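Spend some time on the protein that follows and explain the fold to me:
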Amino acid sequence: MKVEHFNAKPPTLADSDQVSRVRSAIQNALADGVLSRQDNDQILTVMYADGKVSQEECELFRVLQAKIWRGEVCLED
């Protein structure tokens, strides 16, 4: 499903860097196929580091959630 945001502004270079940091945090957290509470907290810390969450960052987090729901990623107890 494609969602259009009419107030969306084109991403800046800083936004692109932030998205890259979030992507890296998620990749690092999933390196072992298990997501711990600490991993999740680290991802959220990186996402909120600039005081806002972009559409791209939300999409990355949604993909992570979908992997958990499908059982592709295990949650650590």
